## 1
Amino acid sequence: MKIKREFLFIAITGLLFLLPLLGAEKGGLAVLSEGEGKVKLLWLPPRGQWPEGGWRVEDASGRVLGVVKPGDPGALEPLTPGQRERWERVKPFFGSQRERTQVAEDMVRLIAVTDFSLAKAFAMAWQGGGLSPGRRSFRVVALNGKGDPLPTVLSSPPVDPSLPDPPLGAPVRLRTLQENEGMVLYWGKGEGKPLFYRIERSDPSGRRALLTEQPLFLGVGWKETLPAYVDRKGLSGGTNTYRVWGVDLFGRSGDSSECKGEYVPPETWLPPLSVDAKGEGGRVVLSWRMGENSRVSTVVVERAMLPEGPFETLTPKGVPPQPSLFEDRGVKGGVSYFYRVRSVSGGGDLGVPSDTAMVKVVGSGQLPRIEGLKADLGRTRIRLTWNPAADTAGYLVERKSLGGDWARLNTEIFPKTLLDDPILTEGEAVTFSYRVSGVSLDGTVGKPSSEVVVNVPSRLKVGAPILERVEALEGKLKIHFRHPPSGVPASGYLLLRSSSPEEEGLVVGEALPPQAVVFTDGWVKPGETYWYRVVALDGNGGRGPLSQAFSGQPLALHIPVPSAPRGEFKSVPFPRVVLTLPPGMESFTLVLERRIDGEGSWTTIAESLVGESFVDSHPPRGEVNFFYRLLYLDAQGVRGEASPILTIRRP
């Protein structure tokens, strides 16, 4: 059966929610008392049961009130031209079993419950009067082609025909908010059981328009905290008045509610037409161009490290759109940043973001010389320390032997101000010189520091220890070894760690005393594999040969529970929640989640939080409670227990 396109809206919107309520599988009969002895009946046949002879209408005593058949002339006569056209399109359904697919059945049911006149033409409704007072039930009996009754009988709840059923109450708490390019309507259900809703809008000039040419179904799970309708077409700037009323199963309109909403045309507060960013001298200068019709009084600047975000709000209090200039000095040379600008409407709503502008910051080109370089000679290493330098992303450390050339100790930029140089030479004494240079993120290398000289004395040879096993513990590894079976007595031991058996590894921690046979390594991450070797030290701190390599993998750490976030809602110049967070913890990722009252699931709104504050620029709309909580993730992404909950209410 061909279904007219205008019915598709009903199918998509109501099919999932309406048919189960009206008994699409087993059928159902609804009744309405109009008072003065008049009633209306509307029924849905059980799935697959469309009797050839129509239906016989009876009261509870068995008195026959009428017989209805599809296409009855008395039911077709009052139809409008539009309704008659719909009847002609649906008419084949009642004439051939071959066209009665499940989809076609559902369409016929949905048309019937949204148009009582067509329901009578389909033999799915009856209207009568002259009934005496007193509560009674009604029923409809299926008939075969000869007019004989079939087993299918549908019964209604009891009503008193002399007492009219009360009308539907008006929707409650009707309100509207502008959101981007439309007006969003919210309301709660009034008295009665509306099947669907109608909405009418009056623009500032007084012209009225029915916005719901097709019925608006809200579904079983609809809540008044959710948007009920979004008006986007034909809106006029200024004060628009909305009227909303419910309609029941028999097409009766209930009482209506009205509310007014101020609509500001989007072209007056859209984001800037273009945004330009320039990075120079360790800063970013952001400029933008507003549209000619812009009426924006405030804009918000956002920044991210990746093109898709997450974006952080740089101007929580907003900035004027003119002059269209903003300077960001919280950047580093050599790093790429992404910027966008949002307009704030007169109602305090954040508009859609502008196009994103990308910029790579150029450093100032002048790095300070590294000061305070010191060298501490230990038994197994030379420890270098120096003072941190401003605008420096890391450091390059160089070493040379007496009479030799400078060579880098670190091939990659080293971010810390401490470096241990292991003493690998044996036998004769040696002299080393060291110097350090700063490096910016854009690759600029500063002038090297003053040199420091270290004289390393000669060292005696010791034997190789025997590494026995690596014991896995929670968040750490315990290495068990035996002393060298031969050679000069050791003055201590070093533990070397690497990520593969081919690498010699780096020294972990301080040297162990000569009597030690166990070392506990707590600088490890669960889930990763580490390889260990042990080396003995002679009396001068010189190293002997390495032991064989053993591997180990630490067990997972216990994930701590963060304390609850603190925060408050701020509405000027735009709605936001300013949160105070606990300090982050090493080895764990801090995650912020939010949930709206009445909804069961938590939503992640920020991960890998750093710092002690966060601005939620998109809090839920409407007068509603919403909640925040924190939790930690370990390196493998395992979630820990959530913190206590912070409750925020938007006024």
Note: Helices lie at 8-14, 18-22, 73-76, 81-90, 102-114, 116-121.
## 2
Amino acid sequence: MIRPGSFFVLGCIFFASAYAWADPPARPLIYSVNPAGNGDFVGAPHKGSSFVRYQELLFQRISEAGSRSARVLASWREVEAEKGKWDWSNLDDEINLCTRYHIEPVVLICNIPAWVSPTGKSAHNHPPKEEHAADFTTFITRMAERYKGRAQYYEFWNEQNGCSWINDGCDNARMAHTYLPWLQRCYKAIKAVDPAAQVAIGGLDDADGHAPIFVEQCYQLRRDKYGKEKFWDAIADHPYSKRPTDTIEELVRKLDAIRAVAARCGDAGIPIWITEYGWNAGEMGIDVQQRGTAEFLKAFSRPDQKDLLIAQQLAVADFEPVHLGYGLCDLNLRPRPAFQTFQELARPGIPRPFSLRFVLQPDGVPVISGLIASASEKEDPPSVVEVFSEDGKRLISKKGDPNMLSVDLPGLPHETPLLAAVSSIVGDKPDVPVARVPFIVPRGLIPNGGFEGLFRAGIPWAWAVTGPSICRDGGALGKEYCHGGDHALLLAQLPSSPRRAFDDQVEAPVRAAQGDSFRVRWFARYFGPENQAATVMISAALLDPDAERDTRPAGKPIGKDWTEISLDLTAPCDSPILCLHLVSSTLPKDRWLVAIDDVSVEPLRR
């Protein structure tokens, strides 16, 4: 049986549709996730294709979670690396993705180019030299003009009271006098272009509750130097918690301390934006990350937090090459329990699947099937499966049962990446998809067995990978990781893994009928430190996708040279799943990789 939530492993691509949120909250932007991730680490061949670009996958995941806003970076050092030479492409891409997926951008203005820097180098921890104030204003003005009508929330700088300002050692709690003149210039330039825009004091480092010191300085300096002039509309905060318990009380204490300062300075009720919060699952555990996500989202919606307008979880995916980090998903965009918790609270009343997959019927026709949990005691609307081509063209739209989904999809093109988006019908149109399943209709018995087709987020198209390993395209690293062709599936165990062992399953559907016999063949090798051996085993089985997986076949060892493994297997049912299971004992402390390539399934003559 496919484990609950495993449909997320398959579903990565999202094609935008009209939003129909059930009972939208009064402050919707408190349900938000930021698009941090690391596409460079997992690797993404075919980077020119928008269908598999990692950055787009991040926004698709954000949308799937139910996020209403996301923080995007307006980095002056990238936009105008050379004076007068403007390149808005990175920010344009992120603003366009926000627009495409109906996400409100919160624009973080940060970083300076080398030509305005007091150190002569581009930086994230210095304001420009004073002589470049006019250049700074020009940058801000151009940005506001470019995105007027598409962005209305801006914050100036990031943790300027901590490690992202002038003094070394993160000693900037009392440096507001150097920050305020630049905030004033930023505020005035944006408001001159777009009076409706909102500008916040940049997200404050508040892990230890120090934010009120900086906020009070800002108010005092504004009063003493600028009179009643206003140049912020909100205060942004990063109330990280270092303890896994009492998180809500700690959160409220930090926000109340900021509120108290604002009230003393005649600014009671000023909006608060939380532009980062979250927990490193590697330090606190997946269960703590999940519990904290639930507690914070519930606290944000309380009446006593009505001035809290924006709250953004730090990262939809890990952004460092570790197995456990701040992400609601891992590097390969496979959701953790906290993602599902966020989704349930951000998208109330939405029917959601707890198993969803594609299989191949014996005649080769793909089927999208699974169970969808009811959203309420009322009868759920019918489901609909829409299939899209790589260029976004809709090829098929078919209705299915609300909760017991099984939709066959005949007549689709072979050997090309396709995407099935599963939604409910709202009115007469599909709602926001509850899941997405990438698949390929093979000409033979198995899709993408050589892994020469597209990868997305490090996983070969039409395959699923479960377990703690990070997945990469071996071809993105070097030919030694490929047995044949230019691509291979590479699984990485890193020293930061809590177990330092392989325990992963690599799966794809097989076109077969019950009782058919096959020879399954593949190639594998492992890479590890010199003079260090490890026992790495790999096995294969044809499984009934609806049956419990209570046994594992005996594995065969692989070594540091390419090992060919061949097994004869019999299909236990129609439309089985091929499962390659990779397992090892505890590995030495260094980095270990296993490459799998050229998987084939051939019928045996009776």
Note: Residues 176-193 form the longest helix (18 residues).
## 3
Amino acid sequence: MVKLFLNPVLIILFSVGLHFNLEAFEMDSVDGGKENLTYAAGDEVLSSEQKVVKKVDSTFTVESSLKPNTTTHITFLTQEQAEDIQYFSGSYKETIVFYEEDHIKIYVGLGASEKVDLEKIRCSVGQAIVKAKQLKKEEISLILPEVYFLENSEVVKAVVEAIGLSTYTFDKYKSHADGAFKNVQKVNLVHDRDHSSDISYAQKIISGTCYARDLVNDMAHIVTPAYLADRAKDLVKGKENCEVVIFDEEAIRENNMGLLQAVGQGSLYPPRLIILKYNGDPNSDDIRAVVGKGITFDSGGLHLKPTGYIEDMRIDMAGAAVTMALFKTVVDLELMVNLVCAVPAACNSIGGAAYFPGDIYQSYSGKTVQILNTDAEGRLILADALAYVCEKYAPKELIDVATLTGAVMVALGTDVAGLFSNDDVLAEDLFEVGEETHERLWRMPIYPQHTQAMMGEFADLNNIARGGAAGSITAAAFLQEFVEETSWAHLDIAGVAYRKTPMTGYVPKNATGFGVRLLLKWLERKSCCSGV
């Protein structure tokens, strides 16, 4: 077992503008422009047309100014605000382009004013970025939407989030012709207040979400259990209130985590259990915990997945990616919460050492499990991690995040994740923040008969229910057996973690990062309750 304790580095961002690189999210020195702010009635107001810039590199820039300073201007209008625009009604997501002598005007509709919310703003900004990409515009000016009943601060956060999430690309392995259009490179955000703190906050959300997307999109021979462990070490580097504990295959075996060991034993890439700890509220003993499924590739084991299903199975560690990204974002925002993030990581491979259907293994909790299907492996590694976290840290609330079942997609499709819980209050809290962030959840039941369906003949439990009905519910019932009385929720993100359809709004094709913003908002509420 490897244990690291590292020292703090605090990065405080002060500027009206923000530059960030979606692959290297580290702020650098101020470059270009001058800050020239005056103060009036407690508000910081831009009193000059000089733009304020903070720069990482030339890859991507968000800057603020009083008026557009590019040749492409994007304006967002409600139906009421669009009355004077010819050929444009302002309907939600309606987009029209006007070509003028020296610039282009793009109008994007927000719909009826009384129905505008932050999600419609995010989606409309995403629509605008898509249009700018289609027009091959590297620099655009985006006029901040005016919605009188929404807090200006929240509108700015939503707009900047959508800009960053919409311009995300994963092109690590692509070669580009010199001079070819790659992406929107600069967004000039037009507004008349100092929103530097809001922009900085949104940047951290973007950074975390894109961190998760990068991990999921990358290749399985790169993102191995050991690779995730190394990235976890990076997350605590320089943070004195953070700690990482890594269990290698020997420590997993010595700690009797028989299920995690079994799933990972057939691979050349041995399993790991990663525990990240953040002590953001030293005056409280309350701990929240999040456990993320980290199957770095899922072949199905000896129940081998067929063609058409196996090709994308590097994404089966999306729960782990979300969990690590959540930790990163919580630390970056310095939330006043105590957080434990656990990632059981394994590669479910075939081979001479692979675990067999019919085998029985003992879990960390002591309960035995018979393997009826080697492709129901995610619940096995989660079971050992959940039991360990409950015993070691006694969290006040515990959430696991996993691409667990195809059955949840049959029930809820690809826009809503499944929510299962033994605590009505926790379930309602998560549902509410899901509606707020639009990373939406729908609660499913776990009745005694679902638990009974998982009881074994030769072992305490089977890893699937005989007959196969209610697959996502019986999987959740299995997990519930390892949390005892802990307040717990399970999020099945199999339908929402990865999209095969083209980008719509700010949600891209391929990895989505679903769950980072949701769980962050949930923890922010706990932080507020702690006195922040």
Note: Confidence is low (pLDDT under 50) at residues 1-58.
